[in-house]
């Protein structure tokens, strides 16, 4: 099976990757790091890439996903695959998890309440509410 880690290139993404790596090792599963960019960001990156004099190898999605995984090799000791998608992040992560029949989806979230009650970001909340797959959520306090 596959462990899917939803990453964004944030500092918390490295914690998500570390947790997903532990799960992949424990279950002897594949690890897939999924980075989704919104349509508007995709358009901006396509324009930037077409204006660049050097030709990048790979698609915009692959290049964006690769940039979001900077430093992963220092954390991950399992084999992993980098996956780039364009569109609504929660929808695309869940579509991919279904496509590969993921054992777990690992995501990050934020604790926003002053009393410590965890309220997740919209992407994390949408993932939690729209899947029957087990979701491991790591929270970060502001």
Jot down its keywords.
Universal stress protein, UspA, five-stranded parallel beta sheet, 142 residues, Rossmann-like_a/b/a_fold, alpha/beta, Rossmann fold
3D structure, described in words:
With 142 residues, the chain is an alpha/beta fold. It has one domain: 3-Layer(aba) Sandwich (Rossmann fold), CATH 3.40.50. Helices cover 41% and strands 27% of the residues. The chain has a 5-stranded parallel beta sheet with strand order 3-2-1-4-5, with helices on both faces. About 4% of the residues have low confidence.
Short characterization:
With about 140 residues, the chain is α/β, with parallel strands linked by helices.
The main β sheet shows up as: 5 strands, parallel
Number of helices: 5
Number of domains: 1
Report the sheet-strand fraction: 25-35%
Write out the strand line-up for the largest beta sheet, numbering strands in chain order: 3-2-1-4-5
Biased composition (Basic and acidic residues): 47-56
Protein name: Universal stress protein
Region (Disordered): 47-66
Family: Belongs to the universal stress protein A family.
Question: Which SSEs are present, and which pair or pack?
Answer:
Elements: E1 2-7, H1 11-27, E2 30-37, H2 39-51, H3 60-68, E3 80-86, H4 89-99, E4 102-111, H5 122-129, E5 135-141
Parallel strand pairs: 1-2, 1-4, 2-3, 4-5
Helix pairs in contact: 4-5
